[in-house]
């Protein structure tokens, strides 16, 4: 299970002890490890292994192959991560209220069959 972002924790570092590089160029191509490190540094905690799993099962960002190497375009990875964010909430009850409103406005299965 992935942990939630904690701004009081120090920024993640790579194996060389350096902060991960966050690309300025949206067209930059990143390896899976680089993409995971850059997303984590921006507050979207994710591991390269999770990106690998999503690449096989679906639900992850678009990627390209360079030979057998997986490369992600930075703008695709960032857009994917931002798309996973919920809308802003002021309390924990807002999600429940929105869900019940959708359920009440949707026609029941029996009504659709008639």
Walkthrough of the structure:
The protein is mainly alpha-helical and 114 residues long. The chain has a domain of 69 residues. The chain is 42% helix and 9% strand. It is built from five helices and three strands; from the N terminus they run E-H-H-E-E-H-H-H. Strands 1-3-2 form a three-stranded antiparallel sheet. It is elongated, with a radius of gyration of 19 Å. The termini are far apart.
| DSSP strand count | 3
Strand order of the largest sheet: 1-3-2
Helix content: 40-55%
Mass-distribution shape: elongated
Alpha plus pi helix count: 5
The Rg value, from CA coordinates, equals 19 Å
Return residue spans where pLDDT drops below 50 for at least 5 consecutive residues: 1-12
Tell me the distance between the termini: 44 Å
Largest sheet: 3 strands, antiparallel
User: Could you give the order of the helices and strands?
Assistant: EHHEEHHH
Global structural class: mainly alpha
Keywords:
disordered N terminus, mainly alpha, 9% strand, three-stranded antiparallel sheet, 5 helices
């Amino acid at each position: 299970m992935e942990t939630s972002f904690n701004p009081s924790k120090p920024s993640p570092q790579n194996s060389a002890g350096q902060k991960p590089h966050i690309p300025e160029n949206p067209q930059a191509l990143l390896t899976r490890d680089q993409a995971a490190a850059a997303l984590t540094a921006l507050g979207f905690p994710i591991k390269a292994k999770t990106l690998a799993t999503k690449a096989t099962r679906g639900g992850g960002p678009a990627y390209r192959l360079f030979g057998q190497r997986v490369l992600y375009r930075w703008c695709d990875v960032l857009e994917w991560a931002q798309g996973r964010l919920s809308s802003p909430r002021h309390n924990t009850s807002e999600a429940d209220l929105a869900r019940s409103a959708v359920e009440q406005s949707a026609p029941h299965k029996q009504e659709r069959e008639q």
